[in-house]
Amino acid sequence: MLERIEALGATLDADAAPAEELGRHTDDTARAVLDAGVVRAGLPRSLGGHEFSPRQLIEMVERISYHDAAAGWTMQALQVMTATTAAYLGPTAAAELFPDVPSGKHALLAGHGTRPGRAVPVDGGFLVSGAWQFASGMAHASHIHSAIQVEGTGELRVLAMPKEQVVLDGNWDVLGLRATHSVDYHCDEAYVPATHTYPATTTTPANGGAIYRLGLVNLSALGHTGWAFGVGRRLLDELKSVAAARSGSRNAAVDTSQFHAEYATAEAELRAARAWAAEVWRGIELTLDAGELTDTEQDTLLRLALNHATSTALGVGRTVHRWAGTAAIRRGPIERFLRDLGTGSQHITSSPVVLQNCGTWLSGARPEASWTFLDLE
């Protein structure tokens, strides 16, 4: 898989700037990445997927994001939405949406799950109404993934429905990650069969093995973690190239001891964050392989590792911006990756509230609490 991604690296690099202008990746580029198997990597083996381990998924997204932050963000979103749908929906929906995964005949899902729409129970299903934001990868999706709250019971569920059932608002006008097509969307009383929904908090897969016992939110942390490391690494490598080009010129800042010290510090911080995330996820893999569910400490640490990965990448970005000079403000890879990093770091999974909740549990302030999505309750 990593060799396939590297083979597409030049294409992703070349397409990154035009994709920003288009607001999405071209069909040819998206298809090439999808054909490499990046979504299939997260699908259950029982349905024909590869069912990668957590650390494999992190590394895969990291490598895509190194070449193009927007492509990495788009593909990790499509991968986790599609993988969780495949894992948690029962046989009726799975047969319809994932008829031949090895041949590439399966649904691709995009959408949003933190602000639920309304679901009114009717015979055989629900009438769904709502408005959702940030549907990354929607340009390439065939189906919608959305959270809903069942009227009368308050139960939170997640649905899968054809993209044609919603209206795309086309309002993705942002500073960074422009090529992700993360538009808002809405619908009014769209019918969704009950067979095409699942409980939002489930950790019991209908398809697939150990990894899907993580649940939706924990699985989503994998892609965001890999994305931060890929973007941070690319920015440091770009700064290294800038330094090589400017070294020896008159009053070159990159020839100072201060630059060398700050570059070394950024390198150490990025490598340390990556090593710690790998340690956290190795422990989780051992728990899942033993047939167990993650405990509250592991649920806390995986959230903290993601938050730390993002903040570390932001620190790398500040170092790169400080020393890259005009390369950080003129159109080019550094300027684009800095904008993408600034936008991606605003994601709710890396928010200050999540960090505060991690500290609340780790400090012993609320030892009885556990995680429900991103809330400590």
From TrEMBL:
This is Acyl-CoA dehydrogenase. Residues 223-350 form the Acyl-CoA dehydrogenase C-terminal domain. Keywords: Oxidoreductase. Pfam families: Acyl-CoA_dh_2 (PF08028). The keyword tRNA processing does not apply. Transmembrane segments: none annotated. The lineage of its organism: Bacteria, Bacillati, Actinomycetota, Actinomycetes, Kitasatosporales. Signal peptide: none annotated.
